Every structure is written in structure tokens, then in C-alpha cells.
Amino acid sequence: MRKIVATKAAPAAIGPYSQGNVFGNLIFTSGQVPLDPESGAIVGTTIEEQTEQVLKNVKAILEEAGSSMENVLKTTVFIKNMNDFAAMNAVYATYFTEGAFPSRSAVEVARLPKDVLVEIETIAYL
Q: How confident is the model at residue 48 (pLDDT cuts 50, 70, 90)?
């Protein structure tokens, strides 16, 4: 059965979607952008600051579902400028265990919600 995941430790959904969905032993998170969960304001102006907040939001959703960053199997990174990839990747690498990195796709996009620099979604196991 499907279970909806919601936590106040990550930005509330602002449309017809859920922060996360658990199905079986998997959790699927919606794409997270660098919003402060309390104020709804964009956090940071650099790719590093925004990536940090995005991954904090992802982590909060995973933990609410009973999972963790260590259990992430796949990520999709949407980045506004591929020239920022190395800087994003440096922050991203601090959230995952070397030797057990998740599979990943990274795509440069023309525009993201609220004109942020990065959005990340995940699939993890419980």
C-alpha cells in the first residue's frame, strides 16, 4: 500500500504533489528546491548554499519516512547551469558514503521553480 510522507522539517508541498511517497520498501521524494521549511524563503544565492539546503530538505523527508541518505539508490539533479556542476557535486558528495554512492542523472534545465539554481529528487529504500 502507498503511504504519503509529510514533515514540517522540509518545505510544504505548494501544489498537487506530496513531499514523498512510500510504496513497499521504497520512498520516492519529490524534487526539492532550496526553500527554508519555516519561512518558505529561498536559502542562499550560490550553488553551494542552495545544494546544501536542498539536501537538508531531502534528508528530512527521508528520515520522516524511516529512511536515510545512506539508503538512497537514485538521484536526479536538475541544475540551471552545468558550469556549476563541480561546485554542486562537492556539496552533494558530503551527503553520501563513498563506495555506496547512489546512481544519478544530472540534467541542465532552462528554468526551475522560483528561479533557483538546483533541484534534486531521490528514490531510497526503507
A: very high
Decide the pairing of beta strands 26-29 and 20-23.
antiparallel
18: its cell numbers: 506530496
Report the C-alpha dihedral over residues 17, 8, 47, 68, rounded to 10 degrees.
-90
In angstroms, what CA-CA distances link 32 with 1, 36, 38, 118?
A: 24, 11, 15, 8
Q: What gap in Å lies between CA 22 and CA 121, rounded to an integer?
A: 14
May I ask the CATH class of domain 2-125? alpha beta
Which of 88, 27, 99 has its CA nearest to residue 59?
A: 27
pLDDT of residue 1: 86
Grid cell of 21 as nine digits: 511517497
Provide CB contacts within 8 A for 15, sequence distance 6+: none
- Give the distance from CA 10 to its chain's centroid: 10
Q: Where are the domains of the chain?
A: 2-125
- Is the model's pLDDT at 14 over the cut of 90? no
